[in-house]
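[audit] Reproducing an earlier prediction to check determinism. Same input, same settings, fresh worker. If the tokens differ from the archived copy the diff job will pick it up downstream; this log only records the rerun itself.
[audit] input (919 residues):
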Amino acid sequence: MEDPQQKPPEDNPESSQNIYPKLRDSSERRELRRRWTSSNPYSHCDTEADEEEQVERPKTSNEMFIPFWVSIIVLGLGMLLFYTGTVAFQALPNIKLIAEEQDNPDAFIGERARNMLREFVNIGPKVVGSEANEVLAVEFLLREIENIQSISHSAHTIEVDVSNHDGSFFLGRLPYSSVALYHELQNVIVRVKPSTGPTPAATLLVNSHYDTVPTSPGASDAGIMVVVMLETLRKIVQIRTPMRHNIVFLFNGAEEIGLKAAHGFITQHPWRHNVTALVNLDSTGNGGREILFQAGPGAPWLLNLYAKYAKHPYGAAMGEELFQNNFVPSDTDFRIFRDFGGIQGMDMAYAYNGYVYHTKFDRFETIHEGTYQHTGDNVLALVKGMANSPELDINADLGTGSVIFFDFMGWFMISYTEVVAMIINILIAILQFVIIGFSMYLMAKSEGVPFKKVFKELIKVLIAHLVSIVVGIGLCFLLMVIYDAAGRPLSYYSELWLLYGIYFSPFYLGLALGPMLYFTLKKKHPLTVSHEVQLFLHSHALLLSVLLIITTGARIRSAYIILVALIFYCASSGLSTIFRLVNHRRLGWIYFHIIGLVLPFIFSAYLCNVAFTTFIPMAARIGPDQYPDLVIAAFCSLIAIFLGGFIVPLIGLCTRRWWVYGGIFGLFSVVGIILLATPVGFPYRAETSPQRYWIFHTNRVFYSFGDDSIRKSDSGYMLLPMDRNSQPSFIQSYVPEMEKALPVEEDCAKEIFCGIPLYRSSMTSQAQFSHWIPASEPHLNTSVTLTRIINQIPAGRLAFQVDGPSRMAIYIAPAKGLKITNWSFHPDIPQWRIPGMPDRTGYFIARTAGKTNRPYSFWIELDTPTDWPENTPQVSIGIVGHFTYHDEQITQDFRRFLDSFPDWAEVTPWMVGYRVYEF
């Protein structure tokens, strides 16, 4: 029987007019379908047309939006977290006082080390060959060592030796390698061994240098390391039990002139035998925390010892990779011990405040007192731990292989082998893929749409996100070109905060552009805003996962930076998925996500501080041919990805997205105006971050072939450029004589090595950017001469004697078509081309004399054919005498020229004699 209340629609006018019209409304029909499909287990049976249909997003209570004021709070929290990372980077312990030693008998006493450094720095610059280095510094060391011997425990025997070394080796990397030649370089060496029983076979070597560059007192480089070694020695010999292994403390007297004293020890000294581990201490900054930036090679056991004993761990494999790939314009003795002694070890150095490195501002007063305690605690604990560890035994069975290591916020050190890294990295990447896949499945189930539709949306979002990253990086590099063309390179050099407007904001403008346009312009979406934002976050995780796999395959150990970000996102997204918080009705995923960002954000801020405080000061000494902004823009983009990659997509949840986007643009605009239109963007500051100039008051003499007549002679100031702003016009308004500066580029095609006096072979790449200012003749207190030796010389051999100051360079350039077949400098003969003369081979020999300076003789043999024209020279030889520690010989004209430089310019001056001969 038919129910009279259930009439067909056509028989019910009210239904026909009121019910069906509502169902025909597109938004309500779609809402009805969505509700039905979300509760119907057979909703996947929709037709293909239904699967492809894009629905207009309904604005229901299920949407989650972040108010504008919440965005401000999140920004503030981000700044707080960044500050937390900065604080962790700068943390230093309190210094221990001498008065506290009775209560801390085994502790490193930072105050005593500081008192020793004050006295040591008062000696002044300690240049190899000078009285300060060869006499006064050695006397200081021997006096302190004698005091330590007087209070040592009878369990230890202390042996002291002052050695002198002659030798030669190849230094540098092709094409700018040179022969490092040295005579009578001094080392002060202390060996500690048990006073009874057999002498241990293995030895731990602890090394640092006491010499300095010509104008610097060297408080940090490396005076503080010297006094840390002395205080460590004091504490070691007061221990009542002997060490398991010998300890050699090497105070080497010639590091700044090419790592030569270290070579003398490791190739000649009898105590070098059976050295199985090394702790090398140096500096490229001015105090702060010493960073472990090289370890090994291939010694996981060393990192285990460091992690076990270092009280304030601070180190990173990233630093090692950058250093060993020539991103750092410096080198340390670690290289000598590794390459010539086959020793595994740890290389630690200061990198903070590198602005004053190798300048007169590397003073005692600028070093924070916590530095002494930080370094002392670490070095003392390491030396004691390593000297008693079985790993140093001669026959110890130790694992080998590349090591990934990094400290986490200075709290602890993490290290693992490359094999373990590959396993972890791949597993985390796979786990991330699985979590994202399951999250998408839950999204599809929650929305009532097929999984394929969510996957398609992910592809679109992934493309948008990838394009956004490319746009952000492109903006940074475009601005880098604009800044350089506008004469504003290194504008952030003194004010690092400018980087956030110069490069970080432009990158975030590009990164946020994808989500902004995606959510603003696309009117129809198959998913809710909450799910779309999660897809943006997933897409970022997918890109990082792919990048992690690529870097792992390329054996880039710095991939741990990516790993840290992914581990925490795996955790937050995994928990959200497990608790099914990806459901569009549940908003808990955002809390998991934000909590999961805290530690990675602080860690990224920490790395940001490490990178910028280390590498930005180096930008002012990498030469004028390099683009420091290119490297810095790349660094900013990379760090910005880790700082904001999982944050910027949240802009899609903001109620006023364009306000947030406008805020980013406003920050960029304001900083850009400050940079380009105000003095804030001027790179240099007096004392704290000066610009560097190397200026040699030079007398040049060029002799003719055959009769030794002078074909050219002049005197002037040779300006060797140090950074991108080294052109004379940059400082011309302060130094009027710069108007007379002449480029030497044309001379590069006429004269060997551009006719200028280079200090080291690496300066060859900068030679063509140098300038010459004509001036009066310098006063040289020693002649610079080259004399040919004729008597008792074998046929076909050219022999010479060189006389000059303790620091000299010898250029040898055979004529076109000839090459050297044998010589007296070294068994091997490197070959590389002279800049500006691609058809000629050149050789650079850097000669240094230490305790005693005397004339030096050498010989060469050429492959000269028998039909060589009689009146044609076979070889050009140039000799350069650098008077690096004779300030009293500076002329009044040169002094007036130096005094005309502004206070933000740091000038390294000395006198040079340069002679070129043809034979």
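[audit] rerun output stored. Observation attached for the diff report: The chain has a mean pLDDT of 87.
[audit] end
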